[in-house]
Amino acid sequence: MTDPPPTQQRYQTAIAQLTAAIAQSKPDGILLPLILEALAARDEIQTLLQETKGVTGETLTAIADLDQQLKDQAATIDRCLKSIDWQTSFSPSEKAWWWSLKLQKPNPWWNQDWVWQAVSITCITISVGLFGDVSARFLKGGPDTFGAIAVSAQSIGALLTAGGALTIAGQEANKRLLNRFQISEQYWHEVGAGFSVLLLTGAVGLRLSLPQIATLYSDWGFKNYKQGNLGTAEELYKRALQLNPDYEQTHLRLGLLYEDLQDPEQARTSYQLAVRAGIPDAINNLARLKILDKKPEVATSLLLKALEEEEKLSPEERYAMLKNLGWARFQQNDYSDAESTLNDAIALQKSAKLAEKAADPNDDTTLAIASPYCLLAQVKEAQAKKKAALASWDTCNANANFFITEENAWAITARKKLKEEDKRK
């Protein structure tokens, strides 16, 4: 090892003396000359580096080590230099960093690169999980156009963001892009974290919007249902339930569709799911299916409970429930209660002018106007009130809606009864 140049030796000696004095807690009056000596020696080192060619690596390493020792005493140096007007006296170059040594504050935790990298990875991981859940809902049963677009868009966003943060090729591409926009390198990690947060925001937004998207699918399905496109309607209803299984209105609509498809078992299941939300139409339709299954006690329980909250029911809903309750009571051979309940339904039909609403071509509500009369006729017959029964059969036949299965069957019975009476006369 060669001896260090005199300039380096002076710097080394000055640093050693200063370090020793600080370790011994010497007063500032003693430390200040030692500090100025170390800084002046560092000035000579800088001149040496600028004017001398071929400085050895050994020399550069030694200087770097001495510089670090000088920086380690930054707090003491800064305190002592504040006691004199050294800037006026010495006017050092702006590049002479050793004259402006200050205690370097560590970067706060939120300004550390690893923090922003952790934010990026966390956001990407959560986003991928959310996108996976959403994709599974859209792709179940095969994607449609809207679903394919949604899944593709979210997948592309996730791949681009994850690739840019986690792969070498992606990181290089991001660097080129950020350089093109002249974004300082010190902010690259923050920018990457920002994109990850945007991706997560989009993922959360899409996940939270599934109920609204499900409503759109259900409404499209109902539109097709009214147009007679039952297959398309069923597909759209199922898609809506994949996106939001708790959308009870869709369960009700699906139940109506299954009834039209002559599938009472699936209709019953759909109505039962809709009943959880207390939807009156679902309760009424499920009760009617229970009556058709010869389970009037179940229907009675459903209807009586719903009718207790009368203020929540529209006239149409209450009318349908009274009609079905009268039907259930008839099956239970409770003729007195059946007659009273059916008469209440008929009275409500007249007071609310439900027959006029049913006849309105602009009103798509299907009301079984003839049903209470048809049922009342059967109750009267069971009570051996033949004349009253015939009067009800006549009204039943006159108002029957042949698109309603029960009314169609009852109307046929009504005509037979009326013909038999005509023959007797």
Structural commentary:
By secondary structure, the chain is an all-alpha fold. Among the domains are: 6-100, no CATH class; 113-208, no CATH class. Helices cover 76% and strands 0% of the residues. The protein has 21 helices and no strands. The chain has helices at 6-23, 28-51, 57-72, 74-81, 86-90, 113-139, 145-166, 168-180, 188-208, 210-226, 230-243, 248-260, 264-275, 280-292, 296-307, 315-331, 335-351, 354-359, 371-382, 386-399, 405-424. Helix 13 (264-275) packs antiparallel against helix 14 (280-292). The longest helix is centred in the N-terminal third of the chain and has 27 residues, at 113-139. The relative contact order is 0.04. Residues 160-167 have low confidence and may be disordered.
List the helices and strands in order. Answer: HHHHHHHHHHHHHHHHHHHHH
Biggest sheet overview: none
Q: State the helicity in percent bands.
A: over 70%
Rg, rounded, reads 44 Å
Shape: rod-shaped
Structural class given helices, strands, pairing? mainly alpha
Poorly predicted runs: 160-167
Write the layout of secondary structure elements.
Layout: H1 6-23, H2 28-51, H3 57-72, H4 74-81, H5 86-90, H6 113-139, H7 145-166, H8 168-180, H9 188-208, H10 210-226, H11 230-243, H12 248-260, H13 264-275, H14 280-292, H15 296-307, H16 315-331, H17 335-351, H18 354-359, H19 371-382, H20 386-399, H21 405-424
